Amino acid sequence: TLEIDQARRVQNAKLHTCGHLIDYALHDIGYTDWKPKKGYHFPNGAHVIYTPESSIDLGDHPNIGHQIESALNARIASGGTVMPRYVSRDELSEYVSHVPDYIPEDKPCRIVVYDGYGTPCGGTHVADIHEIGQAMIRKVSKKKGDIKIAYDVAN
Question: What sign has the CA pseudo-torsion 101, 139, 43, 86?
Fold first, then answer.
């Protein structure tokens, strides 16, 4: 017997999709050289980590969290279908700016696509991004050259 906690599953899907949309928000505000490195898309600590190609001093960007949050919430408010697809490694470059090394050469990769932008992912997502509701950027920090963006979504 299997029971699914529907409220928890929906919250996890909202967090997961929101974490990927942060990539899109960063592009919207001009941080196009930040490569996604790692993500944790679960309650109590959701975050994404990026490696910028060029050095950045967060002290020079005091409103970066607000900028990311504004761009993110604008995307969410616009809505849009989230579509899973299977593509070859070669086709993946049509959807992402950086193809991760872990993507196999010899079998299809599952990606999640929104508005032509995609990311490799096998996780659970909302059907339309407007379902995320309101996103909050809790903190933007830097450690050893990587940028960590902690975020949350309303229940």
Answer: negative
Q: Which SS3 state, helix, strand or coil, does residue 19 take?
A: helix
State how far the Cα of 67 lies from the Cα of 61, in Å rounded to an integer.
10
How many Å apart are CA 134 and CA 130, to the nearest integer? 9
Nearest to 13 by CA among 84, 86, 65, 71: 84
Write down the H helix ranges in the chain.
Answer: 6-28, 64-78, 89-92
What is the rounded distance in angstroms from the CA atom of residue 127 to the CA atom of residue 11?
Answer: 13
89-134 pLDDT, tens per residue? 888 888 877 777 788 888 899 989 888 788 888 889 999 999 999 9
